[in-house]
Amino acid sequence: MRIVLGVGGGIAAYKVASLLRLFTEAGHDVTVIPTEAATRFVGVATWEALSGHPVSNSVFDEVHTVNHVRLGHEAELIVVAPATADLLARAATGQANDLLSNTLLMAGGCPVLMAPAMHTEMWQHPATQANVETLRSRGVTVLEPASGRLTGSDSGPGRLPEPDAIFEAALALAGAPAVPASVPVTASDAALLPPRRPLAGLTVTISAGGTREPLDPVRFLGNRSSGKQGVALATAARDAGARVRLLAAHMDVPPPAGVDVVKVETALELREAALHAAADSDVIVMAAAVADFRPADVSGTKIKKRDDVDDPVISLVRNPDILRELVEVRDAASRNQLIVGFAAETGDADGDVLEYAAAKLRRKACDLLVVNHVGQDKVFGEDTNSVVILSRAGSEPQEASGSKSDVAAAVIDRISAELSRVVPPA
Protein backbone atom coordinates (compact mmCIF):
# COMPACT_ATOMS: atom_id res chain seq x y z
CA MET A 1 0.00 0.00 0.00
CA ARG A 2 1.23 3.52 -0.85
CA ILE A 3 1.21 5.60 2.32
CA VAL A 4 1.97 9.29 2.79
CA LEU A 5 3.21 9.94 6.31
CA GLY A 6 2.97 13.61 7.24
CA VAL A 7 5.01 14.72 10.24
CA GLY A 8 4.10 17.86 12.19
CA GLY A 9 6.45 20.13 14.09
CA GLY A 10 6.14 18.83 17.64
CA ILE A 11 8.44 17.12 20.10
CA ALA A 12 6.50 13.89 19.55
CA ALA A 13 7.93 13.69 16.03
CA TYR A 14 10.65 11.39 17.35
CA LYS A 15 8.01 8.72 18.04
CA VAL A 16 6.94 8.79 14.40
CA ALA A 17 10.22 7.21 13.37
CA SER A 18 8.98 4.06 15.11
CA LEU A 19 5.62 4.36 13.32
CA LEU A 20 7.44 4.63 9.98
CA ARG A 21 9.40 1.48 10.80
CA LEU A 22 6.16 -0.39 11.58
CA PHE A 23 4.73 0.59 8.20
CA THR A 24 7.83 -0.34 6.20
CA GLU A 25 8.36 -3.64 8.02
CA ALA A 26 4.76 -4.54 7.18
CA GLY A 27 5.67 -4.11 3.51
CA HIS A 28 4.13 -0.70 2.79
CA ASP A 29 5.67 1.94 0.53
CA VAL A 30 5.90 5.13 2.62
CA THR A 31 6.66 8.66 1.50
CA VAL A 32 7.40 10.98 4.40
CA ILE A 33 6.45 14.66 4.20
CA PRO A 34 7.67 16.57 7.24
CA THR A 35 6.76 20.20 7.79
CA GLU A 36 9.63 22.66 7.96
CA ALA A 37 9.18 22.81 11.74
CA ALA A 38 9.25 19.01 11.98
CA THR A 39 12.76 18.91 10.52
CA ARG A 40 13.97 20.85 13.57
CA PHE A 41 13.00 17.86 15.72
CA VAL A 42 13.95 14.99 13.39
CA GLY A 43 16.21 15.58 10.40
CA VAL A 44 15.50 14.72 6.76
CA ALA A 45 18.28 12.12 6.76
CA THR A 46 16.41 10.02 9.34
CA TRP A 47 13.21 9.98 7.28
CA GLU A 48 15.07 9.15 4.08
CA ALA A 49 17.04 6.32 5.71
CA LEU A 50 13.93 4.72 7.25
CA SER A 51 11.62 5.19 4.26
CA GLY A 52 14.08 4.56 1.42
CA HIS A 53 12.72 7.61 -0.45
CA PRO A 54 13.88 11.20 -0.93
CA VAL A 55 12.17 13.56 1.52
CA SER A 56 11.05 17.13 0.88
CA ASN A 57 8.58 19.64 2.25
CA SER A 58 8.69 22.06 -0.67
CA VAL A 59 6.26 22.23 -3.60
CA PHE A 60 9.22 23.38 -5.75
CA ASP A 61 11.14 20.09 -5.52
CA GLU A 62 10.58 17.52 -8.31
CA VAL A 63 8.43 20.03 -10.17
CA HIS A 64 8.59 17.92 -13.33
CA THR A 65 6.55 15.20 -11.57
CA VAL A 66 3.98 17.74 -10.30
CA ASN A 67 4.76 16.35 -6.86
CA HIS A 68 2.25 18.42 -4.90
CA VAL A 69 -0.56 16.85 -6.96
CA ARG A 70 0.85 13.39 -7.62
CA LEU A 71 1.47 12.40 -3.99
CA GLY A 72 -2.12 13.03 -2.94
CA HIS A 73 -3.55 11.32 -6.02
CA GLU A 74 -1.41 8.21 -5.67
CA ALA A 75 -1.74 7.76 -1.90
CA GLU A 76 -3.88 4.90 -0.65
CA LEU A 77 -3.62 6.15 2.94
CA ILE A 78 -2.47 9.43 4.49
CA VAL A 79 -1.38 9.51 8.13
CA VAL A 80 -0.40 12.74 9.90
CA ALA A 81 1.48 12.39 13.20
CA PRO A 82 1.94 14.40 15.25
CA ALA A 83 -0.95 16.56 14.05
CA THR A 84 -0.22 19.84 15.81
CA ALA A 85 -2.82 22.50 16.52
CA ASP A 86 -1.39 24.50 13.62
CA LEU A 87 -1.62 21.55 11.22
CA LEU A 88 -5.21 20.81 12.24
CA ALA A 89 -6.12 24.47 11.70
CA ARG A 90 -4.45 24.61 8.28
CA ALA A 91 -6.11 21.36 7.17
CA ALA A 92 -9.54 22.48 8.40
CA THR A 93 -9.31 25.81 6.59
CA GLY A 94 -7.90 24.37 3.37
CA GLN A 95 -4.56 26.14 3.41
CA ALA A 96 -1.86 24.97 1.02
CA ASN A 97 1.39 26.67 1.95
CA ASP A 98 3.70 23.63 1.95
CA LEU A 99 3.91 20.16 0.42
CA LEU A 100 2.00 18.41 3.23
CA SER A 101 -0.98 20.78 3.22
CA ASN A 102 -1.08 20.59 -0.60
CA THR A 103 -1.08 16.81 -0.44
CA LEU A 104 -3.96 16.81 2.05
CA LEU A 105 -6.00 18.97 -0.32
CA MET A 106 -5.20 16.70 -3.26
CA ALA A 107 -6.04 13.43 -1.47
CA GLY A 108 -7.97 11.43 -4.02
CA GLY A 109 -10.60 9.95 -1.74
CA CYS A 110 -8.17 7.81 0.26
CA PRO A 111 -8.55 7.46 4.05
CA VAL A 112 -6.90 10.22 6.08
CA LEU A 113 -5.95 9.71 9.72
CA MET A 114 -4.58 12.46 11.95
CA ALA A 115 -3.03 11.75 15.36
CA PRO A 116 -2.99 14.96 17.43
CA ALA A 117 -0.29 15.91 19.92
CA MET A 118 -0.11 19.20 21.80
CA HIS A 119 -0.48 20.70 25.24
CA THR A 120 -3.81 20.13 26.99
CA GLU A 121 -4.86 23.78 26.77
CA MET A 122 -4.26 23.79 23.02
CA TRP A 123 -6.20 20.55 22.51
CA GLN A 124 -9.15 21.75 24.61
CA HIS A 125 -9.25 25.24 23.11
CA PRO A 126 -12.57 25.89 21.32
CA ALA A 127 -10.73 26.76 18.10
CA THR A 128 -8.94 23.40 18.02
CA GLN A 129 -12.10 21.49 18.90
CA ALA A 130 -13.97 23.31 16.12
CA ASN A 131 -11.23 22.42 13.64
CA VAL A 132 -11.36 18.77 14.72
CA GLU A 133 -15.14 18.70 14.31
CA THR A 134 -14.81 20.24 10.84
CA LEU A 135 -12.27 17.64 9.76
CA ARG A 136 -14.33 14.76 11.14
CA SER A 137 -17.43 16.06 9.37
CA ARG A 138 -15.46 15.78 6.11
CA GLY A 139 -14.57 12.15 6.76
CA VAL A 140 -11.10 12.63 8.25
CA THR A 141 -10.38 10.31 11.18
CA VAL A 142 -8.94 12.39 14.01
CA LEU A 143 -7.79 10.22 16.89
CA GLU A 144 -8.26 11.23 20.49
CA PRO A 145 -4.88 12.11 22.02
CA ALA A 146 -3.59 10.03 24.90
CA SER A 147 -3.43 11.41 28.44
CA GLY A 148 -0.24 11.59 30.47
CA ARG A 149 2.98 13.51 30.94
CA LEU A 150 3.53 16.23 28.37
CA THR A 151 6.58 18.34 27.55
CA GLY A 152 7.69 20.00 30.77
CA SER A 153 6.02 19.32 34.09
CA ASP A 154 2.37 19.38 33.00
CA SER A 155 0.19 16.36 32.41
CA GLY A 156 -3.18 15.74 30.75
CA PRO A 157 -4.79 14.87 27.39
CA GLY A 158 -2.53 15.80 24.50
CA ARG A 159 0.09 13.05 24.26
CA LEU A 160 0.62 11.43 20.89
CA PRO A 161 -0.91 7.93 20.93
CA GLU A 162 1.75 5.22 20.93
CA PRO A 163 3.06 4.25 17.48
CA ASP A 164 1.55 0.75 17.60
CA ALA A 165 -1.90 2.24 18.38
CA ILE A 166 -1.64 4.62 15.42
CA PHE A 167 -0.40 1.77 13.22
CA GLU A 168 -3.33 -0.43 14.24
CA ALA A 169 -5.89 2.34 13.70
CA ALA A 170 -4.43 3.32 10.32
CA LEU A 171 -4.45 -0.21 8.93
CA ALA A 172 -7.95 -0.83 10.27
CA LEU A 173 -9.09 2.37 8.55
CA ALA A 174 -7.51 1.36 5.24
CA GLY A 175 -8.45 -2.31 5.46
CA ALA A 176 -4.86 -3.41 4.95
CA PRO A 177 -3.16 -6.50 6.39
CA ALA A 178 -0.40 -6.03 8.92
CA VAL A 179 1.95 -8.19 6.82
CA PRO A 180 2.48 -7.85 3.04
CA ALA A 181 0.65 -10.21 0.70
CA SER A 182 3.96 -11.48 -0.68
CA VAL A 183 4.93 -12.94 2.70
CA PRO A 184 3.68 -16.51 3.36
CA VAL A 185 1.37 -16.49 6.37
CA THR A 186 2.01 -19.17 8.95
CA ALA A 187 -0.30 -20.12 11.81
CA SER A 188 1.75 -17.95 14.16
CA ASP A 189 1.33 -15.01 11.76
CA ALA A 190 -2.46 -15.32 11.65
CA ALA A 191 -2.93 -13.04 14.63
CA LEU A 192 -1.24 -10.25 12.64
CA LEU A 193 -3.92 -10.25 9.96
CA PRO A 194 -6.95 -7.99 10.29
CA PRO A 195 -10.35 -9.54 10.92
CA ARG A 196 -13.00 -9.90 8.27
CA ARG A 197 -14.47 -6.53 7.29
CA PRO A 198 -18.20 -7.23 6.92
CA LEU A 199 -19.11 -3.68 8.03
CA ALA A 200 -16.85 -1.91 5.52
CA GLY A 201 -18.47 1.26 4.23
CA LEU A 202 -21.04 1.41 7.04
CA THR A 203 -21.40 3.95 9.84
CA VAL A 204 -21.97 2.44 13.28
CA THR A 205 -22.92 4.56 16.28
CA ILE A 206 -22.29 3.01 19.71
CA SER A 207 -23.08 4.46 23.11
CA ALA A 208 -20.97 3.46 26.11
CA GLY A 209 -20.46 4.18 29.79
CA GLY A 210 -22.85 5.46 32.41
CA THR A 211 -24.77 8.73 32.42
CA ARG A 212 -24.55 11.07 35.41
CA GLU A 213 -27.53 13.15 36.52
CA PRO A 214 -26.52 16.21 38.60
CA LEU A 215 -28.02 16.96 42.01
CA ASP A 216 -25.87 20.02 42.59
CA PRO A 217 -22.46 21.23 41.32
CA VAL A 218 -20.75 18.46 43.31
CA ARG A 219 -23.07 15.43 43.46
CA PHE A 220 -24.83 13.32 40.87
CA LEU A 221 -26.91 10.18 40.47
CA GLY A 222 -24.89 7.60 38.56
CA ASN A 223 -24.36 3.89 38.05
CA ARG A 224 -21.58 1.31 38.08
CA SER A 225 -20.97 1.15 34.32
CA SER A 226 -17.28 1.23 33.37
CA GLY A 227 -17.76 1.55 29.61
CA LYS A 228 -15.58 -1.53 28.97
CA GLN A 229 -18.22 -3.40 26.97
CA GLY A 230 -19.07 -0.37 24.85
CA VAL A 231 -15.41 0.29 24.10
CA ALA A 232 -14.95 -3.38 23.15
CA LEU A 233 -17.92 -3.07 20.79
CA ALA A 234 -16.45 0.07 19.22
CA THR A 235 -13.13 -1.72 18.71
CA ALA A 236 -14.80 -4.76 17.14
CA ALA A 237 -16.93 -2.61 14.82
CA ARG A 238 -13.87 -0.60 13.78
CA ASP A 239 -11.94 -3.80 13.05
CA ALA A 240 -14.92 -5.03 11.01
CA GLY A 241 -14.40 -2.05 8.72
CA ALA A 242 -17.04 0.36 9.98
CA ARG A 243 -16.69 4.06 10.56
CA VAL A 244 -17.44 4.14 14.28
CA ARG A 245 -18.94 7.00 16.27
CA LEU A 246 -18.70 6.46 20.04
CA LEU A 247 -21.14 8.38 22.24
CA ALA A 248 -19.10 8.31 25.44
CA ALA A 249 -20.72 8.91 28.80
CA HIS A 250 -18.61 8.43 31.95
CA MET A 251 -16.09 5.64 31.27
CA ASP A 252 -13.27 4.11 33.31
CA VAL A 253 -11.37 3.16 30.14
CA PRO A 254 -10.13 5.28 27.22
CA PRO A 255 -11.87 5.14 23.85
CA PRO A 256 -10.14 3.02 21.19
CA ALA A 257 -8.00 4.62 18.52
CA GLY A 258 -9.58 5.17 15.14
CA VAL A 259 -13.12 6.06 16.23
CA ASP A 260 -14.93 9.39 16.43
CA VAL A 261 -15.77 10.30 20.03
CA VAL A 262 -18.73 12.43 21.14
CA LYS A 263 -18.63 13.08 24.88
CA VAL A 264 -21.88 13.27 26.85
CA GLU A 265 -22.71 13.51 30.53
CA THR A 266 -26.46 13.17 31.11
CA ALA A 267 -29.25 11.13 29.60
CA LEU A 268 -30.65 14.25 27.91
CA GLU A 269 -27.25 14.97 26.34
CA LEU A 270 -27.02 11.36 25.17
CA ARG A 271 -30.51 11.60 23.67
CA GLU A 272 -29.57 14.71 21.69
CA ALA A 273 -26.31 13.14 20.46
CA ALA A 274 -27.99 9.84 19.54
CA LEU A 275 -30.80 11.46 17.56
CA HIS A 276 -28.28 13.62 15.71
CA ALA A 277 -26.03 10.63 14.97
CA ALA A 278 -28.95 8.49 13.81
CA ALA A 279 -29.37 10.60 10.68
CA ASP A 280 -26.35 8.98 8.97
CA SER A 281 -25.97 5.71 10.89
CA ASP A 282 -26.49 2.30 9.34
CA VAL A 283 -26.32 0.61 12.76
CA ILE A 284 -27.00 2.00 16.24
CA VAL A 285 -25.90 0.06 19.33
CA MET A 286 -27.13 1.55 22.61
CA ALA A 287 -24.78 -0.07 25.12
CA ALA A 288 -24.60 2.84 27.56
CA ALA A 289 -26.13 2.50 31.03
CA VAL A 290 -28.66 5.32 30.84
CA ALA A 291 -30.26 6.64 34.04
CA ASP A 292 -34.00 5.96 34.09
CA PHE A 293 -34.58 8.96 36.35
CA ARG A 294 -33.01 12.36 37.04
CA PRO A 295 -33.54 14.86 39.86
CA ALA A 296 -36.52 17.11 39.23
CA ASP A 297 -34.57 20.07 40.60
CA VAL A 298 -30.85 20.73 40.36
CA SER A 299 -29.39 23.02 42.99
CA GLY A 300 -27.10 25.76 41.72
CA THR A 301 -25.07 25.52 44.92
CA LYS A 302 -23.84 22.59 46.96
CA ILE A 303 -26.58 21.13 49.15
CA LYS A 304 -25.38 21.61 52.72
CA LYS A 305 -25.78 19.16 55.57
CA ARG A 306 -27.11 21.30 58.44
CA ASP A 307 -28.60 20.57 61.84
CA ASP A 308 -31.12 23.43 61.65
CA VAL A 309 -32.93 22.21 58.52
CA ASP A 310 -34.61 18.98 57.55
CA ASP A 311 -32.78 16.45 55.41
CA PRO A 312 -33.43 17.10 51.72
CA VAL A 313 -35.99 15.03 49.83
CA ILE A 314 -34.96 14.34 46.26
CA SER A 315 -37.82 14.15 43.76
CA LEU A 316 -37.10 12.26 40.53
CA VAL A 317 -38.56 12.53 37.04
CA ARG A 318 -38.30 10.01 34.22
CA ASN A 319 -35.69 10.37 31.55
CA PRO A 320 -36.79 9.86 27.94
CA ASP A 321 -36.67 6.35 26.48
CA ILE A 322 -33.88 6.98 23.99
CA LEU A 323 -33.87 3.49 22.47
CA ARG A 324 -37.61 3.51 21.84
CA GLU A 325 -37.43 7.02 20.38
CA LEU A 326 -34.66 5.99 17.99
CA VAL A 327 -36.84 3.14 16.74
CA GLU A 328 -39.82 5.47 16.28
CA VAL A 329 -37.74 8.03 14.37
CA ARG A 330 -36.29 5.30 12.15
CA ASP A 331 -39.70 3.81 11.37
CA ALA A 332 -41.24 7.20 10.68
CA ALA A 333 -38.45 7.99 8.22
CA SER A 334 -38.49 4.45 6.72
CA ARG A 335 -34.75 4.18 7.24
CA ASN A 336 -32.93 0.95 6.47
CA GLN A 337 -31.23 0.93 9.87
CA LEU A 338 -30.44 -1.79 12.41
CA ILE A 339 -30.94 -0.81 16.06
CA VAL A 340 -29.50 -2.85 18.93
CA GLY A 341 -30.35 -2.32 22.59
CA PHE A 342 -28.67 -3.50 25.77
CA ALA A 343 -30.58 -4.52 28.87
CA ALA A 344 -29.00 -4.88 32.30
CA GLU A 345 -31.54 -6.99 34.19
CA THR A 346 -32.02 -8.71 37.51
CA GLY A 347 -34.66 -11.32 38.30
CA ASP A 348 -37.09 -11.18 41.21
CA ALA A 349 -40.10 -13.05 42.61
CA ASP A 350 -42.22 -12.00 39.63
CA GLY A 351 -39.94 -13.16 36.84
CA ASP A 352 -36.46 -14.16 35.72
CA VAL A 353 -33.99 -12.13 33.71
CA LEU A 354 -35.06 -13.42 30.28
CA GLU A 355 -38.74 -12.87 30.99
CA TYR A 356 -38.10 -9.24 31.85
CA ALA A 357 -35.80 -8.89 28.84
CA ALA A 358 -38.37 -10.36 26.44
CA ALA A 359 -40.95 -7.88 27.72
CA LYS A 360 -38.46 -5.05 27.25
CA LEU A 361 -37.75 -6.15 23.68
CA ARG A 362 -41.47 -5.98 22.90
CA ARG A 363 -41.71 -2.47 24.40
CA LYS A 364 -38.59 -1.10 22.75
CA ALA A 365 -39.20 -2.78 19.35
CA CYS A 366 -35.48 -2.71 18.50
CA ASP A 367 -34.08 -5.41 16.20
CA LEU A 368 -31.76 -7.07 18.73
CA LEU A 369 -31.55 -6.88 22.51
CA VAL A 370 -28.35 -7.93 24.29
CA VAL A 371 -29.20 -9.01 27.83
CA ASN A 372 -26.88 -9.01 30.86
CA HIS A 373 -27.70 -10.49 34.25
CA VAL A 374 -26.25 -7.82 36.53
CA GLY A 375 -25.60 -7.58 40.24
CA GLN A 376 -22.84 -7.11 42.76
CA ASP A 377 -19.57 -8.27 41.13
CA LYS A 378 -21.44 -9.08 37.90
CA VAL A 379 -20.77 -7.32 34.57
CA PHE A 380 -20.17 -3.73 35.73
CA GLY A 381 -16.44 -3.03 35.89
CA GLU A 382 -15.51 -6.66 35.23
CA ASP A 383 -13.38 -7.86 32.32
CA THR A 384 -15.68 -10.75 31.47
CA ASN A 385 -19.33 -10.89 30.50
CA SER A 386 -22.09 -13.33 29.67
CA VAL A 387 -25.02 -12.24 27.52
CA VAL A 388 -28.02 -13.56 25.65
CA ILE A 389 -28.94 -11.94 22.32
CA LEU A 390 -32.68 -11.78 21.68
CA SER A 391 -34.18 -11.00 18.27
CA ARG A 392 -37.44 -9.22 17.49
CA ALA A 393 -37.72 -11.51 14.46
CA GLY A 394 -38.17 -14.43 16.86
CA SER A 395 -35.03 -16.43 16.13
CA GLU A 396 -33.54 -18.59 18.87
CA PRO A 397 -31.73 -16.73 21.67
CA GLN A 398 -27.96 -16.70 21.19
CA GLU A 399 -25.58 -16.96 24.14
CA ALA A 400 -22.12 -15.41 24.23
CA SER A 401 -19.62 -15.31 27.06
CA GLY A 402 -15.95 -14.78 27.79
CA SER A 403 -13.93 -11.59 27.80
CA LYS A 404 -15.78 -8.43 26.89
CA SER A 405 -13.83 -8.45 23.62
CA ASP A 406 -15.15 -11.97 22.93
CA VAL A 407 -18.70 -10.83 23.65
CA ALA A 408 -18.26 -7.74 21.47
CA ALA A 409 -17.03 -9.91 18.58
CA ALA A 410 -20.09 -12.14 18.93
CA VAL A 411 -22.44 -9.13 18.92
CA ILE A 412 -20.75 -7.60 15.86
CA ASP A 413 -20.88 -10.97 14.07
CA ARG A 414 -24.60 -11.18 14.85
CA ILE A 415 -25.13 -7.63 13.57
CA SER A 416 -23.28 -8.55 10.37
CA ALA A 417 -25.48 -11.62 9.94
CA GLU A 418 -28.63 -9.58 10.47
CA LEU A 419 -27.52 -7.01 7.89
CA SER A 420 -26.77 -9.73 5.35
CA ARG A 421 -30.38 -10.86 5.61
CA VAL A 422 -31.76 -7.37 4.96
CA VAL A 423 -32.71 -6.72 1.36
CA PRO A 424 -32.34 -2.99 0.60
CA PRO A 425 -35.50 -1.32 -0.73
CA ALA A 426 -35.72 -1.04 -4.50
Topology:
Blueprint: E1 2-7, H1 13-25, E2 29-34, H2 44-51, H3 67-74, E3 77-83, H4 85-92, H5 99-105, E4 112-116, H6 120-124, H7 126-137, E5 141-142, E6 146-149, E7 155-159, H8 163-174, E8 203-208, E9 213-214, E10 220-221, H9 228-239, E11 243-248, E12 260-263, H10 267-278, E13 283-286, E14 293-295, E15 316-318, H11 322-333, E16 338-345, H12 353-364, E17 368-373, E18 384-391, E19 398-403, H13 404-420
Parallel strand pairs: 1-2, 1-3, 3-4, 4-5, 8-11, 8-13, 11-12, 13-16, 16-17
Antiparallel strand pairs: 6-7, 9-10, 14-15, 17-18, 18-19
Helix pairs in contact: 1-2, 1-8, 3-5, 4-7, 9-13, 10-11
Structure commentary:
By secondary structure, this protein is α/β, with parallel strands linked by helices. The chain has 2 domains: 2-174, Rossmann fold (3-Layer(aba) Sandwich), CATH 3.40.50.1950; 203-298 and 312-420, Rossmann fold. Helix content is 32%, strand content 22%. It has 13 helices and 19 strands. It has helices spanning 13-25, 44-51, 67-74, 85-92, 99-105, 120-124, 126-137, 163-174, 228-239, 267-278, 322-333, 353-364, 404-420; strands at 2-7, 29-34, 77-83, 112-116, 141-142, 146-149, 155-159, 203-208, 213-214, 220-221, 243-248, 260-263, 283-286, 293-295, 316-318, 338-345, 368-373, 384-391, 398-403. The strands form 5 sheets. It has an 8-stranded mixed beta sheet with strand order 12-11-8-13-16-17-18-19, with helices on both faces. It has a 5-stranded parallel beta sheet with strand order 2-1-3-4-5, sandwiched between helices. A two-stranded antiparallel ribbon has the order 6-7. β1, α1 and β2 (29-34) form a beta-alpha-beta unit. α1 (13-25) packs across α8, α3 packs across α5 (99-105) and α4 crosses α7 (126-137). The longest helix has 17 residues, at 404-420. The protein is globular and about 80 Å long. It starts with a strand and ends in a 6-residue tail after the last helix. The model is unreliable at 179-195 (pLDDT under 50).
